[in-house]
């Protein structure tokens, strides 16, 4: 296994601040960083989503190590917490299922590589852009019906032909079936309290999934090595090439999101109501407090909805003469 001690110093150098927390990073950049980690508890448990709301005082460097602690490569790591008043660093002890000797965590991809449900509940996210480069997952992303940026020719319905596409689907689904059977019968050993079948049974894709076009053997040999600046430049360049075919789809998603945001702000400015989840008065008392009657509020709601309603244009009917 790797020694985690040098990684603390390396992460501190990359972050620029050794003891920066999730909340401090959000206050400096106004960007949300979310990391996942799994519990080393023998009873399992839901994966943890670490960000400035759920873990404001957790050190980012300790969260990165926990999120990277793959069994047999890096031992489970503790989460470090900074006291916001004194600045003292202590180990997270947790509570309930994560108390005492279970306060060590490992790679979150063992349970939730793409925690879409948790992100949706916490940040109201509905569209997910996923970058997937795990070598054991890339072979499962074969779009036999075409994908954004790589559509099929108009005279072909299946990539590689129907026989090869059906064989690919059969092999893929057979592997998933066997992994699910092994998981249900608990045939795999529970090393580090991890269900290894989850590495294949999770949902790894998103609404927009970015993957490399091919899986190169050279990348697999470089997994356990520190990348050099030249290798990092190659990674960045290939990452750009992976995103370019999906740019139009990403642009359209953002266009819809921006339109809804503008609509929401216009309605808020019209009704002079601040909360996001209550854009209009819900009771007579609240309407009177805002200086409006329920009838006027209802009329404003109808007028605003009418302004932003998409109407289908119909062509005028041709009059026929008898």
From TrEMBL:
Recorded GO MF terms: carboxylic ester hydrolase activity; lipase activity
Basic residues: compositionally biased ranges: 309-322
Lipid metabolism recorded as keyword: yes
Keyword Repeat: no
GO biological process: lipid catabolic process
Region of interest (Disordered), residue spans: 281-322
Residues of the PNPLA domain: 1-120
Keywords, sorted A to Z: Hydrolase, Lipid degradation, Lipid metabolism
PROSITE patterns reported for this sequence: PNPLA (PS51635)
Family membership: Belongs to the PLPL family.
PANTHER family: NEUROPATHY TARGET ESTERASE/SWISS CHEESE D.MELANOGASTER, TRIACYLGLYCEROL LIPASE PTL2
Name under which the protein is recorded: PNPLA domain-containing protein
Organism placement in taxonomy: Eukaryota, Sar, Alveolata, Perkinsozoa, Perkinsea
């Amino acid at each position: 296994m790797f020694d985690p001690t040098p990684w603390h110093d390396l992460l501190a150098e990359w972050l620029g601040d050794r003891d920066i927390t999730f909340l401090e990073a959000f206050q400096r950049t106004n960007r949300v960083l979310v990391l996942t980690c799994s519990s080393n508890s023998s009873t399992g448990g839901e994966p943890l989503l670490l960000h400035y709301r759920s873990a404001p005082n957790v050190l980012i460097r300790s969260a990165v190590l926990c999120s990277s602690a793959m069994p047999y490569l890096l031992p489970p790591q503790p989460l470090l917490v900074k006291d916001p008043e004194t600045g003292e660093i202590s180990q997270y002890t947790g509570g309930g299922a994560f108390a005492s000797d279970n306060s060590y965590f490992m790679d979150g991809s063992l349970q939730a590589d793409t925690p879409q449900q948790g992100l949706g509940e916490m940040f109201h996210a509905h569209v997910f852009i996923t970058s997937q480069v795990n070598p054991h997952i890339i072979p499962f992303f074969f779009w036999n019906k075409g994908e954004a940026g790589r559509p099929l020719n108009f005279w072909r319905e299946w990539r590689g032909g129907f026989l090869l596409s059906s064989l690919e689907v059969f092999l893929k689904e057979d592997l998933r079936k066997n992994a699910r059977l092994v998981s249900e019968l608990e045939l795999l050993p529970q090393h580090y309290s991890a269900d290894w079948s989850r590495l294949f049974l999770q949902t790894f894709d998103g609404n927009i999934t970015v993957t490399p076009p091919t899986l190169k053997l050279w990348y697999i040999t470089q997994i356990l090595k520190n990348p050099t600046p030249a290798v990092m430049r190659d990674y960045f360049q290939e990452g750009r090439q992976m995103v370019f075919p999906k740019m139009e789809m990403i642009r359209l998603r953002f266009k819809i999101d921006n339109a809804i945001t503008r609509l929401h702000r216009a309605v808020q400015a019209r009704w002079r109501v601040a909360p996001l989840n209550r854009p209009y008065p819900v009771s007579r008392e609240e309407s009177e407090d805002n200086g409006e009657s329920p009838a006027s509020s209802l009329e404003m709601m109808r007028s605003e909805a009418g302004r932003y309603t998409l109407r289908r244009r119909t062509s005028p009917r041709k009059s026929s003469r008898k």
